[in-house]
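stage 2 :: seqdesign
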């Protein structure tokens, strides 16, 4: 802008000087070249200079305009205009989002270098190639995408996600770890790594990464609580397995020490309590588990704890029965509680009462545990035909549970 202003001022001054000189007289200009001469007045010379300048300016505009025109025509006929490329890229992204990988790949590859922000096109084109089974081309496209400024993180995340989709968790982690070191606390990186560790059941690595995830606010508060409970439960399961190689007297202190190391908020959660109680039962500490479960159920009702209560092997069976009877007064139609009472009656050598409670539980809700208990009891009582009916029911319920687990995954 400043240069244009200076040029305009210089041009005006030059024009004023020329007009002033011409005003003083016609003047005379003689140009001699060899034996030839050109004579003219200053007015004609000035006009010739102006005409020459205009001719050069027009020629320059014509030349550059022709080059631009050729470029435009070439772009339109060979590749399409920028506007057309952007429209094609937009429709390609729609195809990508709707899962039409072939159409998306075709449109995105042709327009990758013709849109203003091509990174999204590169990534979508690479994903489309991967979905079509061409992993080599997907890698090639992502290699090209790396040349774009600030593209290292999104390209690395895309590569890792493609590996995860293919079930190659180790390769995905090998891509993400250097990125996490170079650019720590990236929420997208931590979130993807935490999902990989869960799929691998690598609880130790997930526990080490947990503080960084909390600082980066990768998950919501509810999700952090669920993850913290999951880690606590898995750690308790691992210790429970390790304790089985120790003397029984040595097991209880180790389990208690781990439990006391948990935050108070975790110790109050029913899922964590259930994991601790299960670990105690596995290591022959049923009496301690009974106290913990009874106290926990007095605060909040949790069916897995009710289920565990019926599996305890404690000496005071009559005390257990009285406790469950008190619970049944408030929850007479609870199928898990009825199943628990049936198990206690079976342990108390009252098979007919156990049968009655198992049947009541099945009348409220047909569960695999209750049908298995009923089939085993009827087999012991000699009612083989009835036992077979409940055994077939158990097989059907087991298949339903497997189908629900598959659909949930």
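stage 2 :: out
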């Amino acid at each position: 802008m400043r240069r244009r202003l200076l040029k305009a001022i210089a041009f005006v001054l030059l024009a004023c000087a020329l007009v002033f000189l011409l005003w003083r007289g016609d003047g005379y200009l003689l140009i001699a070249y060899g034996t030839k001469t050109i004579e003219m007045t200053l007015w004609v010379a000035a006009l010739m200079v102006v005409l020459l300048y205009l001719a050069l300016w027009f020629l320059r505009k014509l030349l550059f305009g022709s080059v631009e025109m050729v470029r435009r025509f070439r772009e339109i006929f060979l590749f399409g205009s920028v506007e057309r490329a952007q429209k094609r890229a937009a429709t390609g992204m729609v195809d990508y989002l709707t899962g039409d990988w072939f159409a998306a790949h075709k449109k995105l590859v042709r327009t990758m270098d013709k849109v203003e922000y091509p990174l999204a096109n590169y990534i979508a084109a690479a994903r489309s190639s991967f979905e079509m089974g061409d992993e080599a081309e997907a890698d090639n496209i992502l290699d090209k995408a790396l040349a774009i400024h600030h593209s290292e993180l999104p390209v690395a995340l895309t590569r890792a996600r493609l590996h995860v989709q293919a079930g190659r968790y180790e390769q995905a982690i090998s891509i993400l770890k250097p990125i996490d070191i170079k650019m720590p606390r990236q929420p997208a990186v931590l979130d993807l790594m935490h999902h990989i560790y869960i799929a691998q059941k690598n609880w130790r690595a997930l526990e080490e990464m947990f503080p960084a995830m909390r600082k980066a606010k990768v998950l919501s508060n509810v999700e952090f609580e669920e993850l913290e409970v999951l880690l606590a439960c898995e750690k308790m399961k691992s210790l429970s397995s390790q304790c089985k190689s120790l003397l029984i007297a040595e097991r209880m202190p180790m389990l208690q020490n781990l439990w006391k190391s948990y935050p108070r908020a975790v110790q109050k959660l029913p899922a964590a309590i259930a994991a601790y109680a299960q670990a105690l039962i596995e290591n022959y500490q049923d009496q301690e588990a009974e106290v913990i479960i009874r106290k926990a159920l007095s605060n909040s009702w949790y069916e897995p704890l009710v289920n565990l209560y019926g599996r305890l092997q404690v000496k005071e069976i009559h005390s257990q029965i009285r406790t469950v009877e008190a619970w049944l007064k408030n929850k007479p139609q609870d199928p898990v509680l009825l199943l628990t009472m049936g198990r206690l009656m079976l342990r108390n050598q009252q098979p007919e009462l156990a049968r009655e409670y198992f049947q009541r539980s099945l009348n409220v809700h047909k569960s695999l545990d209750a049908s298995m208990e009923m089939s085993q009891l009827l087999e012991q009582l000699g009612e083989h035909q009835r036992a077979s009916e409940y055994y077939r029911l158990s097989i059907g319920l087991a298949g339903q549970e497997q189908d629900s687990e598959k659909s949930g995954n």
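stage 3 :: structure notes
- The chain has a mean pLDDT of 87.
- The longest strand covers residues 29-33.
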